[in-house]
Write a structure and sequence with these properties.
Two copies of one chain form a homodimer. Chain A is of the alpha/beta class and 453 residues long. Chain A has one domain: Luciferase-like domain (TIM Barrel), CATH 3.20.20.30. Helices cover 39% and strands 15% of the residues of chain A. Chain A is built from 15 helices and 13 strands. The first copy, chain A, has helices spanning 35-47, 70-74, 88-93, 111-124, 139-144, 153-173, 230-239, 250-266, 288-300, 304-315, 334-346, 354-362, 374-388, 402-417, 430-435; strands at residues 6-12, 52-56, 99-105, 129-134, 180-183, 188-190, 198-201, 206-209, 222-225, 242-245, 275-284, 369-372, 392-396. An eight-stranded parallel β-barrel of chain A has the order 1-2-3-4-9-10-11-13, surrounded by seven helices. In chain A, helix 10 (304-315) packs across helix 12. The two termini of chain A are 39 Å apart. Chains A and B meet through helix 2, helix 3, helix 4, helix 5 and strand 6 of A and helix 2, helix 3, helix 4, helix 5 and strand 6 of B.
Chain lengths: 453, 453
């Protein structure tokens, strides 16, 4: 049987996914700070049988371009940005199946309060909560939290390993499954002998306490991860259940997927314990020509300076004042080289300039773009599935919510006709939907399992 | 004109307000971790034109009784407890006017992420968010956050003053009112010159950063405070807009209210800038006799050991193994003496025993109880209003949601008939509803105002 395609939607609680698109006449991202925006979107995605909505997040501001944050403010580059956790209870009110994957930066959230917050969301959603684990990378965020400097890249992942250990102890180890008695007659709510104080005395974290929430339907929320570096992949292969990759071609993606699954096996897990979604920006029209026209329209709305502000933040290079038509390969920077290599794979004979990169980034960000009629898009998606061993796609939008509505109204039915997409949700928690009926908790092969009693 | 009565409802995201009442056949508090419980309650309170729901919170567990937390677990004493912030977006979905006052313990939430979280809730509720400022007092909570010891009581308030300074800078000072341009044609979202990085280099906090959210309808959420000590009152008189007192008699409450208003004046504010709600547990029946029978029924469900677990946590005294019929005045403890004095005022000739205290605590906690028909309750409330200079009541329940439904269905109409209660909500944000049309932001007399540009 052909593997069915899984879909996830990426969004962020700010003015549009990519710089400039907020100016598009149909774009509704100005409503990012309203309940209506998020509940409407959640209803649309559930109609399209999406696995989940993944809300990215960032603390801090993009202040590398020109050495300040002015261009980020002027062009609304992932700024302002609200706390995405708080959209979840409202979205849960209007849906029954959709999963909610929310980014929370572990460097900046005390582990004890985060353990309770995430468990509360898993309770309120009846087991549909997922956490996208992020370690944080902006210096400006570190300053907001009063840190004089960030941990190094690899230290942040070491810290992350320890942070997760504490969470596993709290979520999996603090309460036994049958701790709750709830006997009104006897006046006994819980068996105190089955609620355990956990301790952790590590390099980065030192604490003692009980998990304050009773076990939620999934205990540990579904774990998302999107790290791309070697250390990031190792972290994902160890902890993550859903991994978000951003390969620009099927061949590059296939290599990443193979590497991730091999690393999972090294960790004692099955390669396919990882559900891998590759980023994909879909631009859909009734016909290929209509879709192409739509892409051109979107590109017209790209904000070059806004794009470069984002790219400067990613790479640490201040592009302000540089010749926009300068070929990128002349930059002597490892950070930028890794980006350029990605593009080179996609189009090896092309000399990318700063302007071209900015335009490219402006539609879909650092993701491959698929443009065409529903039939063309289904062909492209099927091709990716066949070539890469991914499980599905993390869909990026330009104009919201139109682009998601196109997917739901046009692309999903086409995939269903081809037998490539389900016709209804599986029952149960998000984890059960993703991994099989009744599987509400992490499997025994996951490192969290050793903290159970 | 007679001053109208304001009502606020107190609840907590746990198994009932007072130990044991979860066993009552009509009690629905087992649903504390579901959206339905909170949205049903919010609808009821809005039907009753309540100002707001105030959700108390606690980190940590009550582990003084017997030197461990067993009795807290057995009797569900404010445990398990979820994160109350996350109920707000769902309650906001089903209401238009009700305010949401949520406790957040400043010792345990990094100020930079809290600033964003609270602002996000103010956005999502269209300006109906309030924050109940708590400094935290349980040692077990401190250990959960990896602290070897808590700050002293007064130091916690000093820390609180500084924490609020940082919040005021972020909420009031980081964005000017006209910073957002939102000009799609010009491609300018914000005027970067009107978004300011704030800095704070203090004794307890040291940080730099921009407020990540654009200004929310109220900017600073409405500030709740309930501290009872001298230092706590000073803190309330400086910062709070709504103050929650717990006087057991009108005379004692009147003295507290007078003191609070005088302290506000010393701070350069008006005495009536403080909206003061005194705690009150209402037990309502169609007749006085029915109400009395209801109170007896509630008292039957009081869990003595659970009550003493709570009382031990408050006072730091382990009551386990003591004679329950021992008069309380023999305890040589300042902590307990202040409690006993409260009771003594209420009933000077009575010798309270541990058992009686536990029974008393078990219905309504440390609050006066009013029992009777709607007419009797209205008489009592009117008497309190006349004798104390309070603005209204913070209503405690026993059986949820029945007790709140009684208030809404029986007491509110009686108060309305007497001209003591409004017939509709004022328009606008919570602050505008509380302090006057159009007054969305803190007044110039509030210490936050000096951080505005």
């Amino acid at each position: 049987m052909t593997r069915q395609i899984r879909l996830n939607a990426l969004d962020m609680m700010c003015m549009g996914a990519t710089p400039g698109i907020w100016r598009h006449p149909r774009d509704r991202s100005r409503g990012y700070n309203t309940l209506e925006y998020w509940t409407d979107l959640a209803r649309t995605l559930e109609r399209g049988l999406f696995d989940s909505i993944f809300i990215a997040d960032i603390y801090g501001v993009y202040d590398v371009f020109s050495g300040n944050a002015d261009s980020a403010f002027t062009h609304a580059v992932e700024f302002p940005v609200c706390d995405p956790m708080l959209t979840v209870p409202a979205m849960a009110m209007v849906t029954e199946h959709l999963g909610f994957g929310v980014t929370s930066t572990l460097t900046y959230e005390p582990v004890y309060s985060f353990a309770r917050r995430a468990a509360t969301l898993d309770h309120l959603t009846n087991g549909r909560f997922a956490w996208n684990i992020v370690t944080g990378y902006l210096e400006s965020a570190a300053r907001g939290f009063g840190l004089t400097e960030q941990l190094s890249h690899d230290q942040r992942y070491d810290f992350g390993d320890e942070y997760l250990q504490v969470l596993y102890k709290l979520w999996e180890g603090s309460w036994e499954d049958d701790a709750i008695i709830n006997d009104k007659q006897a006046g006994v709510f819980a068996d105190a002998g089955k609620i355990h104080r956990i301790e952790h005395h590590g390099k980065y974290l030192d604490m003692e306490g009980y998990q304050l929430c009773e076990p939620s339907p999934q205990r540990t929320p579904v774990l998302f991860q999107a790290g791309a570096s070697g250390r990031g992949r190792q972290f994902a292969a160890t902890h993550a259940e859903c991994v978000f990759t951003a390969g620009l071609t099927p061949a590059a993606t296939a290599r990443t997927v193979q590497d991730l699954r091999a690393r999972a096996v090294e960790q004692g897990r099955a390669g396919h314990d990882l559900i891998i979604y590759n980023a994909l920006a879909l631009v859909c029209g009734e016909t290929d020509a209509e879709a192409q026209a739509k892409l051109e329209d979107y590109r017209e709305h790209v904000d070059i300076e806004g794009s470069l502000t984002l790219f400067a933040g990613y790479t640490g290079i201040d592009f302000a004042g540089l010749d926009l038509d300068h070929p990128l390969r002349y930059f002597e920077s490892n950070a930028i080289r890794s980006f350029v290599e990605g593009f080179t794979v996609a189009d090896p004979d092309r000399e990318w300039t700063l302007r071209e990169i900015a335009k490219f980034l402006g539609v879909g960000g650092f993701a491959p773009i698929a443009v065409g009629s529903p039939a063309t898009l289904a062909d492209i998606m099927a091709h990716w599935m066949a070539e890469t061993d991914i499980d599905g796609f993390n869909l990026l939008y330009s104009v919201t919510p139109d682009d998601f509505e196109d997917v739901v109204n046009l692309v999903v039915p086409e995939l269903q006709r081809r037998g490539l997409y389900r016709h209804e949700y599986a029952p149960g928690t998000l984890r059960a939907k993703l991994t099989g009926a009744g599987r509400n908790h992490l499997p025994a092969s996951h490192p969290a399992a050793c903290y159970r009693r």
